[in-house]
Structure formats: C-alpha cells, structure tokens
Amino acid sequence: GMVDETQDADALAGPPQPDEFRSKPAWQRLLVMLGGIMMNVLTGAVIFSALTYKYGTEYLPAKEARYGVATTQLGRDIGFRDGDQIIKINGRPFEEFNEVYNPDVLLNNESYYTVERQGQLLDLPKLPKTFFNRLNKQGDSALTFVRARAPFSVEEVKAGTPAAKAGLLAGDSIVRVGTLPVRYFDQLQRALTHYKGQAVPVGIVRNGQPKTLTATVNTNGTIGFAPKLGLSFGRHYYGLGTSIKEGSQQAVGTIGNLVTVFGKIFKREVAATDVIGGPAEITQQFSGHQDWLRFWLLTASLSMSLAFFNLLPIPALDGGHVLFILYEMIVRRPPPAKFLEYAQRVGVLILLAFMLYFYVLKYIIRLF
C-alpha cells in the first residue's frame, strides 16, 4: 500500500472519496490493519519451519541423563540437589531431557518435578511465583537451575592457554583439581572457580596412566580447553509437511509465552524491566562468531514479538486501530474524529515513554 502524505486534517473534513481508505467497509479496513500483524506471524512461522526442515531439532534422550543433574543456586533453592535424577515432570514420565525446560512448565506455578535421590522418589515443591523472574535474570534458562550431569574428557586444547602450557592433551581425563576430586564436568567447573587465579596441581589419566600437571587457572575460572561430554545426543529430522506443522507450533508457542509473561507482569510476579529489553539485549544474544542458526531463530522470535506488540490495544499501534474498527462494527458508527485524533496523540506519547524508559533510562539506572 501507499500513504498519501499530501493530505492534511482539513482534507478529512470533506466526504470520503471512493478510492480512499476511509470509504471502504469496516471489514475491509480491519483486514488492512491486520495485514502487518499477519505478515509478522507468517514470516515467523516460515522461518521456524525452514529451520526445522534444514536442521531438525537436537535433543538429549531422558535416559542419557543417567548421571543425574548438576544444579545452580536457583536449582537448589527450588529443591534440586546434585545427582538427582528427574523421573517425572508434573507427574508424567518424559522422553527428552529438553522437556525439563519447556516454557509451559517453567511459566506454570503449579509445575513440579519428581526426582530419584539415593534410591527414593521425591516430589519437589511446586515452582514458586518468583521462579521465572529469577530464571530470566540469569540468562539462558537451560543453564540456570539444572542441567544434565556429564562425565567428560579433553577434546581440544587451545594454543597458548594455561592448559596447553601445563601439557594437557586431547584424550586426557581430568580426575582432580587441587584437593578436589573431579568426575563430572560441573565438578571441574566448580573446582576451577575455587582455584581461579592460582597455580594448582591437576590430576589426569592419560592412556590409562595417572599423571599430575600444574596449571594456572584464569581469573574467569577456566584453563582453556574444549570438553568432550560423555552424553549421546539425538536429532529429529522432519519432512516438509511436518516441518511446517512444527514451525507453526513454535510460532504460536512464542505468542503464547508472551501472553503468559505479560500476565505475570500484571500480577507483579515478574518485573517488566527484567523481561522487556531493547537493542542492547538483542546484541547480547550473539557471540563473537557468525552463527546463522541463532540469527534466524532470533529473527523469527522478533517477528512474532512484533506481531504481539502491534496487536496491543494502544492507539498509534495496529491494535489500537483494530479496536476502533471493531467498535465501529459493533455500534454501526465510527468514533468521533476528534476522539481519534486525541487518542492517537496519547498513543504516541505512551510509545515514546515506553521507548525512553526501556531503551535509555533502564541502562542509566543500572549504572548506579
């Protein structure tokens, strides 16, 4: 479409011409106003479907998490302990470990996990109302309360790192850091954090023989090697039809999650500043190297977010215009022109205030 910017408010005082938007039936104007939103939804669904078709979906079979879970402080606060094996989610067995992080589970305050601990089955308490807020503050949900525990070996040693200088080689197994025994990768991470900035003896097994190396742990708690985790991941591949179905479900699920999050904001279970971000939060989603999969996933998610926000009943957004057209269809007459003019101004002010706070003031406040 095209907007004629030569017209002013005085031009609207005359009768609508046949080729003008305002002369069209309400249902046609409604479809036009929904056009951008529908295009956002379609774009998101197409991208999700294409990614599903090309890459499939990686998953960890639940039976592969046989070593239990590694926990963070948040995980321990809701009842998990290192080594717990998750048996059920909301009373039901599950096939894939990723289901532990399903948004439908994390956003539901009635959700709970059943674990096996020292041979006994335990139902953990239901997720507290503050859980999602704390989870969101800590970043990637897959790493902020539990993750599958994994034995590991050294896959690659980065040149010039403390690991390389210590003589660590691909294929080595680290069994001790200082006085702390190590079997799983989470234990290694905690041990290195304990000794960060220090030179520490590192016990390894190489070709079946024990050895001791000395490595200086970086101040960020690493020594510079890539691990090979002892877990077997699977991948689902789909045909075109199933990919479209899965992609469409992801698109709809994204909108559903946004609705749930906004509900939590209005219930004051989640702080708006913690879940609504601007350009800075978008740039933080990317690492230093090119990752097209991550880029397209973010593009699809942003497209669905735009659809959701544009549908909000705020004047100046498509949703505001849709609301006024629906009013016209119900009462058989449009709202007064003066009312629409002032509503538009108020809507613009709301959007400007929103952008000023979430794009500027929020970052200034964080500095103090």
Task: Describe what you observe in this structure.
With 368 residues, the protein is α+β, with helices and mostly antiparallel strands. It folds into 3 domains: 1-56 and 239-367, no CATH class; 62-148, Pdz3 Domain (Roll); 152-229, Pdz3 Domain, CATH 2.30.42.10. Helices cover 43% and strands 17% of the residues. The chain contains 12 helices and 14 strands. A 4-stranded antiparallel beta sheet has the order 4-3-5-6, with no helix packed on it. A hairpin with a 2-residue loop joins strand 5 and strand 6 (120-123). Helix 1 (26-55) runs antiparallel to helix 10 and helix 1 (26-55) crosses helix 11. The longest helix is centred in the first third of the chain and has 30 residues, at 26-55. It is elongated, with a radius of gyration of 27 Å. The two termini are 47 Å apart.
Supply Rg.
Answer: 27 Å
From the helix content, strand content and strand pairing, which structural class follows?
Answer: alpha+beta
Sequence stretches where pLDDT stays below 50 over 5 or more residues: none
| Strand portion | 15-25%
Our count of helices gives 12
DSSP summary, beta strand count = 14
Average pLDDT score? 87
Q: Strand order within the widest sheet?
A: 4-3-5-6
Q: Percent range for helical residues?
A: 40-55%
SSE sequence, one letter per element? HEEHEEHEEHEEHEEHEEEEHHHHHH
Number of domains: 3
Largest sheet properties: 4 strands, antiparallel
> How would you sum up the global shape?
elongated
N→C terminal distance: 47 Å
